[in-house]
Specification:
By secondary structure, the chain is of the alpha+beta class. Helices cover 24% and strands 20% of the residues. Strand 1 and strand 2 form a beta hairpin.
Length: 265
């Protein structure tokens, strides 16, 4: 009976094979990551486009008014937060004004490129923010006046602009990738601080440039979605605040002035 001999690999051959595998991995892994990043960006732009459609559908039923950014109300002594995406009462979360206009698909309110908790209550979906400085109505926290009367909700609201009052809808951001040094944010702030009066609050309402090549995505008031490459510090934002609050340049404004948000250049 003959015995067939099988030649084993030599050490040199094994080392050559390992080097080839390492080279292939070095070439293929970045390509796979790039493809994965591009897929997340495509899904993100689709989500933002759907949020824009939902906001326009809401405005069509509300005489041109976009959803409120946030309104606070006291119901039987319990705080009720009515935000643009979700309503919260205590630790309970339920759909907000845009959900019913987004084909009841709440996942469009989650940026696929962001993996982290909300920094505003218990929102289950996060990563996007909404133009609060110019477009969304914003109410202050409830307070009691000198006569003992409680003020909340619409009695303290700062009204946003109706859709027809914006001069350059194609350049006015509506929704975008929200981000600051602490994670995500849901209220988009314009850098000139005309509505808030609080530069630190404004510096925390920036955009996250987290997509491939340091880009961010934004849906504009005319419905188009744009991939934006340049993060701006903001002409009024001190470098110390930009570094400590915003986390610039990983996060930043869409323009140094309010031109990208609905304000004057």
């Amino acid at each position: 009976m003959s015995v067939r001999r099988v030649r084993a690999f030599t050490l040199a051959e094994v080392m050559v094979a390992m080097a080839v595998c390492a080279t292939l991995c070095a070439v293929l892994v970045p390509a796979v990551r790039s493809a994965s990043g591009a897929a997340r960006t495509a899904r993100c732009t689709s989500n933002l486009r759907q949020l824009g459609v939902a906001a326009f559908a809401y405005a069509a039923c509300a005489e041109g008014a976009l959803p409120a950014a946030v309104i606070y109300r006291l119901d039987s002594g319990v705080m009720r937060t009515i935000a643009w995406d979700f309503e919260q009462t205590g630790g309970s979360v339920r759909p907000g004004p845009l959900w019913s206009y987004a084909d009841a698909v709440p996942e469009v309110q989650q940026c696929p490129a962001f993996d982290g908790p909300s920094t505003f209550g218990a929102d289950p979906w996060t990563g996007y923010n909404y133009n609060t400085s110019y477009l969304g109505h914003e109410g202050s926290l409830p307070f009691v006046d000198a006569q003992g009367q409680v003020h909340d909700g619409w009695s303290t609201v700062r009204a946003g602009l109706p859709t027809g009052a914006v001069a350059r809808p194609s350049r006015t951001a509506l929704f975008g990738d929200g981000g600051w040094r602490g994670g995500a944010n849901k209220f988009m702030r314009a850098p000139m601080n005309r509505a808030e009066g609080d530069l630190a609050l404004v510096a925390a309402g920036t955009q996250a440039f987290r997509h491939p090549n340091g880009c961010t995505c934004a849906c504009h008031l005319d419905g188009h979605v744009e991939i934006i490459e340049t993060a701006h510090r903001g002409s009024l934002t001190p470098e110390s605040v930009s570094r400590a609050v915003t986390g610039f340049p990983d996060n930043g404004f869409l323009s140094d002035d309010d031109a990208a948000y609905g304000g004057d250049e």
